[in-house]
Structure formats: structure tokens, C-alpha cells
Design goal:
single chain; about 350 residues; alpha+beta; Jelly Rolls; Phage tail protein beta-alpha-beta fold; 3 domains; eight-stranded mixed beta sheet; seven-stranded antiparallel beta sheet; 8 helices; transmembrane helix; transmembrane; FecR_C; membrane; FecR
């Protein structure tokens, strides 16, 4: 389900930056984003001005104590009654005029803040959208403005610009997604993910930041994989290459797991694999959680394959040769050893 939640996310990031709560690494990454995106820089600048206005409001509030002023008025009225005088307190007396001016100033500042915030949220942050998937949800996809297609795995989120109006196409990924990017040599496509950046012109590849490291598997074309804080610390990945960024170290290798992309393709191949390892692949593919009622069955060898097979058929095919059964309750599945 597509939603406009980037406003909140971006505002939290901007607030963290302006309040000085970012770590040195987060600050460096964020300032790089500002430098690369003039529109984003304008948003941050406008937000900084708002903080200045808020400080002005606080100063006015400190100067004007409403409770004290009202107590003074009541005291004057009480004294007037004691003196049996019928003097009316003019609305625009010198004292009241000063108070009214202070109140008017606060209203003007408050209204100004509201208009400024409205301008920021509607005109500046509106270009950004996000799409996310829940824990046990996969296969959700989005076609971006340039025609690129992004498929999200479970518990993932993509923040993107609706129009890609700048000199680059930049998105932010949390979790895992498969990208099929429309070729555009004049406008690179850049993914900010964890402490890494993935830069391409047009290709298809998988990015996984679900664990404490970032992984990139290239299916077609070339991908530049680098540290966000050190763009020159990079590796170039081509078709079939598998890149890993862990503890600021980049490594290029080959992904030998035939089922690495099963969450997207629903193609699974098992060659003398233990049932426990098979369950891990099924969990990742169908976004479920398989458990066993008997640890003895976890090591049963499995050799088979499935291609776009419904989950119930997969479970039945796994259980039948080994006299197993299963119980399914939502996303929870228990494989059981049948009692003789």
C-alpha cells in the first residue's frame, strides 16, 4: 500500500540534524544528501528558520506572563469596588494596549509559523513518497516515475521522489528490494542503504540490508558499490557478482546460494539439504515462520525443487515422503512427526 509517510520521516531526520543529535557519521551522510539536492537543502534551510521563529516566540512568552497580568486586573477591579468607585477600565488604556500588542505579536508569529510549515510540507516535502511492506509480506512492487521497477521483500521500506526532477535519481532503502532500473546515462540512479551507496545507470540487481551488513547481487549490467562516507572506496560489480559491505570493508565474491532470490522468483532448488535449512528458504520465500515439534526431523534430507508453487503444495510435498504433517495458523507453521 503506497502512502505519504515520507513527511514524518524526513522531518524527524531534519529535526535530528538541526538539534545536533546526529552522530558524526550520520551528519556526514546527511550533509552529503543536502549538497547533492538543492531542493532538499532549501527544506533544511526553511526548517532552520522555523526553529529561529520558535525561539522568538519563547522570548515573547517569557516577557509576557498572562497569569500575572490577569491577577493584576482582578486586583485592580477588587480595589475599585472597595473604593466604591464606578470607573470603567478602558479597553485601549495604555497598560492594555501594551498587552494587546504583545498578544498580537504572538499571534502574528504563530500564524507565520503555521504558514511556513504549511509551505514546507505541501510544496517541498510533498514530492517524496514511501512504500513499505510488513514483516510477513513480500512481492509488493512500485513503478517509479522513470519507469524503474522496485520489488520489496518483507519488512522493507523505500522512500523515493515522485518526479526525479534533479540531476540524479536518489532513493533510500531499508530492508531488502530487487531493482530493475531504466537506463538513463545522464541521470544516475543512487540508492542510500545503511552506510552504503549503490550507483547505477541502468541494470537489475538485489540489495539486502536486513542484517547488520549490506549485500548487493547483480543480475544484469554494472553496479558501483561504495561507502556512503567514502565514495572513492568502491567496487564495481558485474553480472553474477556479489558484494558485501561489513564494518566498512567491501568485498566482491560469488553468491553460491541458488535460492538467494527465491523471495522474488519463488523458484527453490534443494539438493540433499536438511529440512531445517529448507525451512529457512521457505520462510524467506513465503514470509512465514516454520518450527518443528521434534528436533529429530530437522536433519531429514530433502532433494526437490519448486517453481511458483503454492505454499500448501510445497508443505504437502515435503511432508508426504517422511510421514510428517503440518499445522498452519496464519504465518506460523509447525511441522510434526506423525505418531505410529
Amino acid at each position: 500500500m503506497k502512502k505519504n509517510t515520507s513527511h514524518k520521516i524526513e522531518w524527524e531526520i531534519i529535526s535530528k540534524y538541526l538539534s545536533g543529535e546526529m552522530s558524526a557519521e550520520e551528519k556526514l551522510t546527511f550533509e552529503k544528501l543536502i549538497d547533492s539536492n538543492p531542493e532538499y537543502a532549501e527544506i533544511v534551510s526553511a526548517s532552520n528558520k522555523d526553529l529561529g521563529l520558535i525561539q522568538e516566540v519563547n522570548k515573547v512568552q517569557q516577557l509576557f506572563n498572562v497569569d500575572a497580568a490577569w491577577s493584576a486586573v482582578k486586583s485592580n477591579l477588587s480595589n475599585s469596588k472597595k473604593n466604591n468607585t464606578l470607573k470603567a477600565v478602558p479597553l485601549f488604556s495604555f497598560q492594555n494596549t501594551r498587552t494587546l500588542i504583545q498578544i498580537a505579536a504572538m499571534l502574528v508569529i504563530t500564524i507565520g509559523l503555521g504558514l511556513a510549515s504549511y509551505h514546507i510540507y505541501t510544496d517541498k516535502l510533498a514530492p517524496y513518497q514511501s512504500i513499505s511492506s510488513e514483516l510477513y509480506e513480500s512481492g509488493k512492487s512500485i513503478t517509479l516515475a522513470d519507469g524503474s521497477i522496485v520489488n520489496l521483500n518483507g519488512k522493507s521500506e523505500l522512500v523515493y521522489e515522485k518526479s526525479f526532477s534533479g540531476n540524479e535519481r536518489r532513493v533510500k532503502l531499508t530492508g531488502e528490494a530487487f531493482f530493475t532500473i531504466t537506463k538513463n546515462p545522464a541521470k544516475p540512479f543512487i540508492i542510500s542503504v545503511g552506510n552504503a551507496e549503490v550507483r547505477v545507470l541502468g541494470t537489475s540487481f538485489n540489495v539486502n540490508a536486513s542484517n547488520k551488513h549490506v549485500e548487493v547481487l547483480v543480475e544484469t549490467g554494472k553496479v558501483q558499490f561504495s561507502l556512503a562516507k567514502e565514495p572513492n572506496n568502491k567496487i564495481i560489480l558485474e553480472k553474477g557478482d556479489f558484494g558485501i559491505l561489513q564494518d566498512d570493508l567491501l568485498e566482491k565474491t560469488i553468491q553460491k546460494d541458488e535460492n538467494y532470490l527465491s523471495w522474488k522468483t519463488h523458484l527453490m532448488v534443494f539438493k540433499a539439504m536438511s529440512l531445517q535449512d529448507v525451512a529457512k528458504v521457505i520462510n524467506r520465500t513465503y514470509q512465514v515462520n516454520i518450527e518443528f515439534n521434534d528436533t529429530a526431523i530437522q536433519n531429514l534430507p530433502i532433494t526437490t525443487s519448486f517453481n511458483q508453487t503454492p505454499l500448501t503444495d510445497v508443505l504437502e510435498n515435503l511432508c508426504r515422503p517422511h510421514n510428517l504433517s503440518y499445522e498452519k495458523n496464519g504465518n506460523q507453521i509447525i511441522l510434526k512427526k506423525e505418531l505410529k
